[in-house]
Prior knowledge:
This protein is of the alpha/beta class. The protein has 8 helices and 4 strands, in the order βαβαβααβαααα.
Amino acid sequence: MSEMKKIYGYGRVSTRSQNLDRQLIALRECGVPEKNIYLDKLSGKDFDRPQYKKLLKKLNSDSVLFVLSVDRLGRSYRDLSNQWRIITKEKGADVVVLDMPILDTRRDKNLFGVFISDLMLSLLSYVAEMEFQAIHTRQTEGIAAARIRGVKFGRPKKPLPNSFCDVYKKWKSGEITGTEAAKRVNMPLSTFRYRASTYEERNS
């Protein structure tokens, strides 16, 4: 690699609870300066990520971008291929995927080398997207199956206050307005109406 090349690193995890240490260690071992490492804690479904956008502005023909694996850039086959084209063709920067040495655009600058690199990227990004979609499908099917079994999702509802029954009856008979009823049980009006309808269903 030419001494004139400025090196950058990019890392990403999907959620804030996930750890970036493995990616950081790999990027540092490649000699990427700390100030040139850009990290996002966001889903890879698209490229609308603040740190990635900042990184993209820095890249030019004198740049090399290191990533640990291709799915750290993104998971969508179409979007990933498009971003690879922007980085390597429009920006003119090189990309090095550390866990897949064939995806190193510094090597084999001839037409065949570029063809092999682009072909491998297409294959790997397609596999990454299929894997993501398979996981999403399994999660959706699992949630549906759990709901059939009666498993409840989301935060449990707060128990109704002891005065709810009495307030409900007065509201239902027209003795008090919905606004007054909601105030007496310390609920927003929309919440009171919703809880009143479910209370009525249970006790009908």
